[in-house]
Design goal:
single chain, 276 residues, mainly alpha, 11 helices, globular
């Protein structure tokens, strides 16, 4: 019961601080902008004699780009909304009001974690469905293999959430945020280095990207999601801007799951032993 009570408290606290509403507002603004761009693109297509196949592939590229923006928004929302949850409450002493209750500390942390998992799941679902609904209404296409792609984006956010929680039990709010964003930035850069190495057939560059993904597998999960959601023709012809030459394997997805579990376990262990 303690876990679910804390999850509910975390969800209500986020709503009270208007974090949830601000994130939804930013997401809504993005969907309006995305839909406006697709509207003018559809009008331009109608005015030109363009091949239906080419038109369809451009629309597939647009939906993938929209989902890429959703992924970036999700990364920022995950880290920025959760980074102060543990470190900030520990630094201010407000965590003592909860930790002194007859509830095991692990239930406090796991409850907060579940609260954020619920918020992120709802946010990602709204944004992914929104992008695909807009694209279907404007261009008649949706992402390929949408459910696996959604689950991979969701998993990426949960990995980052667990890592942010783990950092929050060791460092201050600012340090935790810098470390979480820095690790994701490292993975982001490594992913593009890996793609560039695959294009130029440079094995050393590919290895650099793989090492970066092992240090932080978040970006690898997005690249796997992009591979799943892109059109089969784009993957077959390797003409996507998101790269299909070096696709993270399912072994990397399993590794990301283990990485997530270890980060959460470290957070629980540290929080349970920490002098508050």
């Amino acid at each position: 019961m303690g876990v679910w009570i804390m999850a509910g408290v975390t969800f209500r606290e986020a709503a009270r601080k208007k974090m949830l509403w601000m994130a939804l507002g930013a997401g809504g603004a993005f969907l309006i902008l995305f839909g406006t761009g697709l509207h003018f693109q559809a009008k331009d297509f109608a005015a030109r004699a363009m091949s239906p196949v080419l038109r369809r592939e451009i629309s597939f590229t647009m939906v993938t780009m929209g989902l890429y923006a959703v992924d970036l928004l999700t990364v920022l929302m995950t880290i920025l909304t959760s980074v102060d949850t543990l470190s900030g409450e520990i630094a201010s002493g407000t965590i003592q009001a909860i930790a002194t209750k007859p509830v095991p500390r692990w239930q406090v942390l796991v409850g907060k974690w579940f609260g954020f998992v619920g918020m992120l799941t709802a946010y990602i679902a709204i944004m992914v469905v929104g992008v695909n609904s807009v694209t279907y209404a404007m261009a008649g296409v949706t992402a390929h293999h949408l459910i696996p792609g959604f689950l991979l984006i969701w998993m990426e956010s949960i990995v980052l959430l667990s890592v942010t929680f783990a950092f929050g039990t060791y460092f201050s709010t600012l340090t935790s945020g810098v470390l979480a964003l820095g690790l994701h930035g490292l993975a982001f850069l490594g992913g593009w280095i890996e793609q560039a190495g695959a294009i130029s057939q440079t094995p050393s560059a590919v290895k650099v990207g793989i090492i970066a993904s092992l240090l932080m597998p978040s970006e690898a999960l997005w690249r796997r999601a992009a591979f799943e959601m892109q059109s089969p023709l784009a993957n077959a012809m390797r003409m996507s801007p998101f790269g299909t030459l070096s696709v993270p394997s399912m072994s990397m997805v399993v590794y990301a799951g283990l990485y997530l579990a270890i980060a959460l376990a470290l957070a629980i262990r540290r929080f349970s032993q920490q002098d508050l």
